[in-house]
Amino acid sequence: MTVLHRVVSACAAEVTVLRRAITSWARALGLDDDKVQDLALAVHEAMANVVDHAYRGDHGPMEVRAWPHQGSVIVVVSDHGSWRTPTPHAEGYTTRGRGLKLIKTLADEVAVQAGERGTALRMTWSQVGLP
């Protein structure tokens, strides 16, 4: 089966382009419409988090990799920025913070790996009917 792999600048325009690409990719795999929409929205939220938080105003690289694996679909969105844990006293703090909650609702499994070399968000949709 096919792998989707893109590395782009972490900016809003690229998020729109990549959402279309991931939607087309998921449809081509044969996922049903509900799964396609869940996957596209979760990946969109993950990419928006990179744009909003990873590079502190700059546009560093954002990588999206998606592949089928043993009847499931795995998508990883990653960056090379710095993890910033929001605090109520941080400059620019808002009450937004719903993206990761939404992603965890849409995907069957979510894992965040944050470190000095960036952040990777791995999302898995299990048993989506793929061979």
TrEMBL record:
Pfam families: HATPase_c_2 (PF13581)
This protein's UniProt keywords: Kinase, Serine/threonine-protein kinase, Transferase
DNA repair recorded as keyword: no
Domain Histidine kinase/HSP90-like ATPase: 10-125
Membrane-spanning ranges: none
The keyword Transferase belongs to this UniProt entry's keyword annotation: yes
Protein name: Anti-sigma regulatory factor (Ser/Thr protein kinase)
Species for this entry: Amycolatopsis magusensis
Lineage: Bacteria, Bacillati, Actinomycetota, Actinomycetes, Pseudonocardiales
